[in-house]
Design goal:
9% of the residues lie in helices and 47% in strands. By secondary structure, it is mainly β. The protein has a 4-stranded antiparallel β-sheet with strand order 1-28-27-26, with no helix packed on it. Strand 2 and strand 3 form a beta hairpin.
Length: 398
C-alpha cells in the first residue's frame, strides 16, 4: 500500500515538475518601433527570421521619408541616402533572413532600386537596358536575389512613338538585372515577392486584355497567370519558402470594386474571406510552410484591421492580442511574417504617441523567467511554486 502511495506521489510530483517547467511565466508582446528623431510616422514591411530586425520607412524632422532598419533593442536606424543627398526619399521593403541585407528604393525625380549591407552601404542596382528607373520589393533568404520592377522604353512602329513600361526583374550579383517578361500580349509587370532560394518570383502583370493578373514565375515555366476569384484582376505579394503557395488579392466579382485575399496552391486560387460584416481583404505575407497568411481586412464598420489566416480561418489581431494593446491603439495592417509564423510586422495607431507607427508583434508564448519552475517569478523554485501548480492542476485554458 505504501509503495502504491509512493508511486502515485512520484507520478504527481513528476507531473507537477513538468507543469512547472511548462508554465513558468509566459509572455507575448507588441513593440511599437517609434519614428526617427522629429518624425511623425513609420511603416514596417519586412522582418528577419528571428524577429530581431524590422525594415520599413519613417519620416524625419524635415519631412523626408527614410529607409529604416529597426532593431527591437535600440530602435530605428536611418540607412542614409546615396551620396549624402538629404533631399531624397528612401524606402526599405524587405530584409534577408539574418537581417543583414535590406532592399528597397530611393526617389529623387526618378526611382532607383538599392541593396544595403552594413559593410557596403547602399548599392544602386541599376536599371534594365534602355530604362532609367527601378524599384526593389523583395529579397531571397540569403540576400543574394533581389526582385522588383524597372522601366524600359519600347518603340511602337504603328504609332511611330516610344512608350515606357515597367517590367519585373530578378537581380543577382553575377547576372545583374534580368527582365522576367510579361504575360502573353501584356505590356508591363511588377515583381513583389521571391521564394527563400530565389527561384520563384511572384507579382502582377498585364495580359492581352490589359487586365492586371497575379503571376508566378520560374526559369523553367516563365510567367504563369494565376487567374482570379471571379473578377477581372488580381495581384500576388507573397510566396512560401518553396514557392508552392502564393498569396495576394483578387477582385471577386465583375464589378471590379471589391478585393478578397487569396491563397493559391496547386493551380487553385482560394478566397480567404474577410472579417464578419466586412467586404474586403488583402494578403501580403505568408509563413515558410504556407500555413499562416497575414494582411488586412475590413470589419463591419468598414475599418481596415490587421489580420491573420490559419487553418481555423481569419482572426482580427486586435481581438486576439487585445490584452497587449493600450486603449485606443489599433493594428491596421500586417505586411510581413517571419518564416516560422512567430513574428508579424505592419503598421498601426499607437494611442500613447498619437501617431501611426510600425509594430512588431511576437505571437509566441515564451518563457519570461530565467529559472525553470519559478512560477511566481521570485527567483526561487520552492514550495510556493509547487502549491500554485497543485491548486491549478487539471485546469484548462478557456
Amino acid at each position: 500500500m505504501m509503495q502504491m502511495v509512493h508511486s502515485r506521489f512520484n507520478a504527481l510530483l513528476s507531473a507537477c515538475v513538468l507543469s512547472l517547467i511548462a508554465t513558468a511565466g509566459w509572455s507575448q508582446s507588441i513593440t511599437w518601433l517609434g519614428t526617427l528623431s522629429g518624425g511623425t510616422r513609420s511603416n514596417a514591411y519586412g522582418v528577419s527570421a528571428d524577429g530581431s530586425v524590422v525594415v520599413g520607412a519613417a519620416n524625419n524632422a524635415s519631412g523626408y521619408d527614410r529607409a529604416c532598419r529597426g532593431i527591437a533593442s535600440w530602435g530605428l536606424q536611418d540607412l542614409g541616402t546615396p551620396s549624402g543627398n538629404q533631399y531624397i526619399y528612401v524606402y526599405a521593403r524587405d530584409v534577408s533572413a539574418d537581417g543583414a541585407v535590406v532592399v528597397g528604393y530611393t526617389y529623387y525625380s526618378q526611382y532607383r532600386a538599392f541593396r544595403w549591407t552594413e559593410s557596403g552601404g547602399m548599392q544602386d542596382l541599376g536599371t534594365l537596358p534602355g530604362g532609367n528607373q527601378s524599384v526593389a520589393y523583395g529579397v531571397s533568404a540569403d540576400g543574394s536575389v533581389v526582385v522588383g520592377k524597372a522601366s524600359i522604353t519600347v518603340y511602337d512602329y504603328y504609332y511611330d512613338t516610344y512608350y515606357t513600361y515597367w517590367r519585373a526583374f530578378r537581380w543577382t550579383a553575377s547576372g545583374g538585372m534580368q527582365p522576367l517578361g510579361t504575360l502573353p500580349g501584356g505590356n508591363w509587370s511588377y515583381a513583389y515577392g521571391v521564394s527563400a532560394d530565389g527561384a520563384v518570383v511572384v507579382g502582377a502583370a498585364s495580359n492581352a486584355a490589359g487586365q492586371m493578373r497575379a503571376f508566378r514565375w520560374t526559369q523553367a515555366t516563365g510567367m504563369q497567370d494565376l487567374g482570379t476569384l471571379g473578377g477581372p484582376q488580381s495581384e500576388a505579394y507573397g510566396v512560401s519558402a518553396n514557392g508552392a503557395v502564393v498569396v495576394g488579392w483578387s477582385f471577386y466579382n465583375a464589378r471590379a470594386q471589391h478585393k478578397r485575399a487569396f491563397r493559391w496552391q496547386n493551380g487553385s486560387m482560394r478566397d480567404l474571406g474577410t472579417l464578419p460584416g466586412g467586404d474586403q481583404s488583402e494578403a501580403y505575407g505568408v509563413s515558410a510552410d504556407g500555413a499562416v497568411v497575414v494582411g488586412r481586412a475590413e470589419n463591419a464598420a468598414g475599418q481596415w484591421r490587421a489580420v491573420r489566416w490559419t487553418a481555423s480561418g481569419i482572426e482580427d489581431l486586435n481581438t486576439t492580442y487585445a490584452s497587449l494593446l493600450i486603449d485606443g491603439s489599433e493594428l491596421r495592417e500586417a505586411r510581413a511574417i517571419s518564416p516560422d509564423g512567430r513574428y508579424i510586422v505592419g503598421t498601426g495607431y499607437n494611442a500613447v504617441t498619437n501617431r501611426n507607427e510600425a509594430f512588431l508583434l511576437d505571437t509566441q508564448v515564451t518563457r519570461c523567467t530565467t529559472l525553470d519552475g519559478d512560477v511566481n517569478g521570485d527567483g526561487i523554485v520552492d514550495d510556493a511554486d509547487l502549491l500554485i501548480v497543485l491548486f491549478n492542476f487539471g485546469n484548462r485554458q478557456r
